[in-house]
Amino acid sequence: MTDTTVIEIAVRTMIVTAKLSAPILLVSVGVGLAVSLVQSVTQIQEVTLTFVPKLIGVGLVIVVGGHWMLAELIGFTKGLFDMIPGLLA
Length: 89
Description:
Elements: H1 3-42, H2 51-88
């Protein structure tokens, strides 16, 4: 196993991590921004008000995109297991 192989595996891991976490993070940031805009317009300054909408948004993203996320993760893991014989030689 060479150092370029280790770097290639690390880069693939970071790309898969970014692909899997991006939808959840974008929805969470979008919902948080929308709730904060509503809070600033209505002058309701409650810190815990953003929790439930974010939880619902993230839950919907997982329900809608969970199959794709799991398929990506399984494909990445299978690819790593397929690389094992080549790494040992």
